[in-house]
Amino acid sequence: MSTFLLQNPEMQVIAKRFQELLDREGITQDSFSKKLGLSRGHLSKVLTHKALPSGVMLIKLANAGYDVTWLLSGEESGLANWEDERNLLEFHITRLEKLLFKQ
């Protein structure tokens, strides 16, 4: 394995954020992997900064409501809990349509 990967500060920060996520959830790597349908081996490699998260992993995390932007950059995106955001948006759109079309 490349020593670049082990010493890459960005990968170490991403690994730390993933561990924070697991700690916050109070869940093991195995349980988290099963919950989201992730590869346990790949998650382990991300946590030990031997690999970057795959696109599939990031999509699964986003679909489950995790803030992928925070995981990768440390910046809150406001897109976590997309389901809540989508429901709120749909509510407002329906309300506006009722006002516009007086239904």
Concise structural overview:
The protein is mainly alpha-helical and 103 residues long.
Task: Write a structural description.
- This protein has helices spanning 3-7, 9-25, 29-36, 40-47, 55-63, 68-73, 82-101.
- The chain is built from seven helices and no strands.
- The termini are far apart.
- The chain has one domain: 434 Repressor (Amino-terminal Domain), CATH 1.10.260.
- Helices cover 71% and strands 0% of the residues.
- The mean pLDDT is 80.
- The chain is elongated, with a radius of gyration of 18 Å.
- The chain has 103 residues and is mostly helical.
What does the secondary structure layout of this molecule look like, with pairings?
Elements: H1 3-7, H2 9-25, H3 29-36, H4 40-47, H5 55-63, H6 68-73, H7 82-101
